[in-house]
Amino acid sequence: MNYREWIFAGTGTTPKSVYPDVLFPDFQNVYIDPYSYQLWKDTGSFPDGTIVVKEITTLGKTNSPVGRGFWQGDYISLSAEVKSQSRFPDTHGNWNFFSWTNRAEEKLNDKSPALGAACSNCHVANAPEGGVFYNHFAVLRDAKGFGKGAPENLSTRKGLQQKTE
Ligand code: HEC
Questions:
Q1: Whose CA is nearest to atom 21 of ligand 1?
Q2: Cα separations in angstroms, 140 against 55, 63, 66, 81, 133
Q3: pLDDT of residue 77
Q4: CA-CA distance, 47 to 83, in Å (whole number)?
Q5: C-alpha–C-alpha distance, residues 155 and 54, integer Å
Q6: Which residues line ligand 1 (CB under 6 A)?
Q7: How confident is the model at residue 165, as a pLDDT?
Q8: pLDDT confidence of residue 103
């Protein structure tokens, strides 16, 4: 699965060096599979089979030609949220949670067991509808049930349209 070719929802930025109490370091890049994004946009609901992945990276540079800030360092690991009625009939919204890769061990645990309550407790209690934190990401917020067309202001992209004929 080449999730970096999916829809990029956005990045949570929680640099541990600044906020030592945060649960996950430092950046969380979130992607959703394109098919499920399309249905999210059409219907406002995540369809069965939705996969949302969260890629964690370290904090890299903290200054640049534009001034001080936070930029991404290296890839650390990948987790995922998967919606499946047949696999997870008893979880809230049929979501379950996985943690897949560990760069140090260079291993892809695609047979990893679902992590269940260790992750879902917080998501169920705090995320909208108890699943994906789409409220944290403009791309997902704007698209929810939008229907046809582009959720952001299309006129800002005049000249960038792909030719269709
Ligand atoms: C204390 C609360 C909490 C716990 C525990 C937690 N998460 Fe999350 N998770 C969040 C928040 C808040 C976001 C959205 C912001 C972000 O990405 O940092 C998020 C985002 C995600 C996303 C991206 C999709 C989304 O919902 O925005 C995935 C995938 C994810 N978490 C997986 C996991 C996994 C796997 C675990 C267990 C190992 C876990 N989470 C445990 C709070 C939590």
A1: 54
A2: 17, 29, 28, 15, 9
A3: 87
A4: 8
A5: 31
A6: 12, 23, 28, 30, 52-54, 79-81, 97, 99, 115, 118-119, 122-123, 127, 132-133, 136
A7: 60
A8: 58
Q: What is the Å distance from ligand 1's center to 9 Cα?
A: 14
Ligand 1 atom at minimum distance from 121 CA: 5
pLDDT along the chain (165 residues), means of 10: 94 96 96 98 98 96 96 93 96 94 61 87 97 98 93 71 63
In the structure encoding, which two tokens stand for residue 15, read together?
A: 């640099």
For tokens 């789409």, name the residue. 134
One-letter amino acid identity for 75?
Y
Q: Do 50 and 78 form a contact (C-beta atoms < 8 A)?
A: no
